Every structure is written in C-alpha cells, then in structure tokens.
From TrEMBL:
Gene3D superfamilies named in the record: FAD/NAD(P)-binding domain
Entry keywords, A to Z: FAD, Flavoprotein, NADP, Oxidoreductase
Cofactor: FAD
Subunit composition and interactions: Homodimer.
FAD/NAD(P)-binding domain span: 2-297
Family per similarity comment: Belongs to the ferredoxin--NADP reductase type 2 family.
Alphabetical list of Pfam families matching this protein: Pyr_redox_2 (PF07992)
Note describing how the cofactor binds: Binds 1 FAD per subunit.
Name by which UniProt lists this protein: Ferredoxin--NADP reductase
Length: 349
C-alpha cells in the first residue's frame, strides 16, 4: 500500500514524485510510455527558455534532470503500464488497474496524466496516413533532418509557433498556415515567426500531392473564399493539438470541465476526495499550461495529499535545504562551489 500513486511521468508527475519524497510519502510513479518525460519527449531538441532559474536547456536535458531529481528519495517507478481504471475501496483506499490486469494499491492518487496517452490530432484528409512514413510529421524530434528543405507547418498553437521559429535558418523555406488569424504562444515568439516565415491565414491544407510515397506539393485553401494556392514542399509538419483521452477520468466519477479537463480545488483536489491532479490535465481560473505551472501544481497537490493523509501535518514542506536527506549533500555542494569560486579567482588573476 503506497501513500501516493502518481499517474503520468511528465514534468508534473516527475516533480511531484520528488516533492512527495520531501514530504516523507511512500510514492509510486506509473507511466504508460517506456520512457519518462511526458510531452517533452515530443521536443527533445527544442531549447526551453521559460522555466524559472534554468538556463536555456534542450528538452532531453530537462528530462534527464527531472528524472534525476525524481529519483532522490528512491520512489518506485513503473513504465509501460496504462492505468485504465481506479476504484475506491470501502476503506477509502484506491485500487488502480493497468492494461495487463495488474493492480496497484494506494491511499491517494495524483493524476498527472496530461492529455491522457498523448495522441497527436491527425490531419483529416483521406489517404494522408500513407505519407507518415516519409515526410508527413506530427512531431519534430530532429531539427537537423529539415535542413535546407521547404517545410510547411500547419497549426496555430504554441508548438507550431515554436517549431516554425526553430526551423527558420535551418530549413530553406518555412511556410505556416493556420485556419485562424490568431496564434497561440508568447507574443514575442508569434511576432518573430510572422516576420520570418511565409504566412497563410486563414488557410488550411486541402490536398497533399505526391506521386510516390512522399509529398512533393500541397494545396492550401482560404477558409472563407476557398481560393487555392499550391506550394512545392519537401516536408509537412502538422500540429493540430492533442486528443484528450477522457474516458478513464469520467469513469472515475471526476467532475470535468466542458473540454474534458479535470476540475480542481485551490489545493488541487478533484471532486473525488483523495484524488488530486496537477499539470496539463487540470483546469482552473489561474491555469498556466506550461512546465512551470505543472511544477507549482505538483507541489500544491502533494501538500494537499499530505494533509489529506495527516490533517495535523504542516500545510507545506519546510524549505528544501532543511531536509535531513540533504544535510550531507549540502556540505558537499558548498565545498564544490568554494573550489569553483577559487578556480575562477585564480583564472582571473
Ligand atoms: C511541442 C511542444 C512544445 C512545448 N514547449 C514548451 C516550452 O517551451 N515551455 C513550457 O513550459 N511548456 C512547453 N510545452 C508544454 C509542456 O510540455 C506541457 O505543459 C507539460 O509537458 C505538461 O506536463 P504534464 O506532466 O502535466 O503532462 P505530460 O507532459 O503530457 O505528461 C503526461 C504523462 O502521463 C502519461 N499518462 C497519461 N495517461 C496515463 C495513464 N492512464 N496511465 C499511465 N500513464 C499515463 C502520458 O503517457 C504522459 O507521459 C510544450 C508542449 C509541446 C507539445
């Protein structure tokens, strides 16, 4: 019986695992994929700039750092397991069932399951799937593979804007089409993208052309006038968002928002006592659907779990440096930093 079982090992689940250790909880983390990292696995080469205090870092490095941190208190981590069902037992504990028929037992649950099993929304054009083996992409894992190519990006969300900006200067030409005029993402990034790419709004992909197995040109159609334009293309990247896998959440009796995301209280508790949620899976008035938001929600949820299990517990963890587990490591780090400072001074003189 675990104090807390966390479903999903993206940024929310990994950070919550670490934080649960800080709060002395016996924790288990369960992930559907064979690798940890959640959506960051979709953008291992993208440089992440907006996590507080962290220098610009590639996605893959952030995953390594999160996994290292999550392992601080030796949690149990299970991969390749799809949790399909949660049942509240008469004693108030939970039994979780995975796709292989195995069971996990826990006093509380933290949903850090993002959009569910991440499934990219596919292009709704007949026969488009035959190009998935060649040059129709739903994610960008290697920027270099687009070097000197003419790339069409379809989509208007954060990720589409980011990929467009990453590809400018690498690809020979970047064309972005979106069915609306507005783009998601930071204003600066959107402005930068608009100044660097060939933009078509409100346009959508009407047809993919390719004699052989690869797309060689694409017809775009204006959403209002139906005016068509055809572009020669070497690669198409589609980012039309992700499908939300809400069945599992609904079956658990959780109150969901209209868009299928989980409604939470200010301490990240769902409508079901003992089930908490953090990260992209939640919706609330102050929602920040970013990695840093997932961290705050994870810590808040774990503090909620702690108080749920022990109402006499303090509302939040003491500042991290006071944790017994860190005492020796704190000393080692201080010495390492002293040596570094000395070396810097010597180099300077
Ligand atoms: C292309 C792209 C670029 C982005 N760039 C940035 C950026 O620069 N900065 C930023 O802050 N944010 C960025 N984001 C957003 C950021 O990645 C997400 O906000 C973040 O990953 C959310 O973390 P999470 O842990 O809540 O969910 P996720 O990362 O989605 O992780 C959820 C995990 O739960 C697992 N899971 C789901 N259901 C189950 C189940 N039933 N059983 C077992 N496992 C399950 C999934 O497999 C997944 O691994 C970007 C997103 C994308 C798509």
């Amino acid at each position: 019986m675990y104090d807390l079982t966390i479903i999903g090992a993206g940024p929310a689940g990994l950070y919550s695992t670490f934080y649960a250790g800080m709060r002395d909880l016996k924790v288990k983390l369960i992930e559907y994929n064979s690798e940890l990292g959640g959506k960051i696995l979709f953008y291992p080469e993208k440089i992440i700039w907006d996590v507080g205090g962290m220098p610009p870092t590639p996605g893959a490095t952030l995953i390594d750092q999160l996994v290292n941190q999550a392992n601080t208190f030796d949690p149990t981590i299970c991969t390749n397991e799809h949790i399909e069902k949660m049942v509240r037992e008469p004693d108030g504990t939970f039994t979780l069932f995975n796709d292989k028929g195995d069971k996990h037992y826990s006093k509380t649950v933290l949903l850090a399951s993002g959009h569910g099993i991440p499934v990219m929304q596919k292009l709704e054009l007949e026969g488009a799937d035959r190009f998935e083996v060649s040059n129709l992409h739903y994610t960008v894992t290697q920027i270099e593979s687009f070097r000197d190519k003419r790339v069409l990006i379809s989509g208007g969300g954060n990720a589409a804007v980011d990929w467009a900006n990453e590809l400018v200067g690498v690809a020979k030409e970047v064309i972005v089409c979106h069915r609306r005029h507005d783009f998601g993402g930071h204003e600066k990034n959107v402005a930068h993208m608009k100044s660097k790419v060939e933009l078509r709004t409100p346009f959508q992909i009407k047809e993919l052309h390719g004699e052989l197995a690869a797309i060689d040109s694409v017809t775009l159609a204006h959403c209002d006038t139906q005016l068509e334009e055809r572009f020669d293309i070497d690669a198409v990247i589609v980012n039309h968002g992700m499908k939300m896998d809400g069945c599992f959440l609904m079956e658990a009796g959780l109150e969901l928002e209209a868009d299928g995301f989980v409604r939470v209280s200010p301490c990240m508790e769902t409508s079901q006592p003992g089930i908490f949620a953090a990260g992209d899976v939640t919706r609330h008035a102050g929602k920040l659907q970013l990695i840093s938001g997932a961290f705050v929600e994870g810590a808040t949820a774990v503090n909620g779990v702690k108080q749920y299990l022990d109402p006499a517990a303090t509302k939040q963890a003491y500042v991290s440096s006071h944790n017994e587990k860190f005492k020796q490591r704190n000393q080692e780090i201080k010495i390492e930093h002293k040596h570094k400072d000395k070396r810097k001074k010597l180099e300077f003189t």
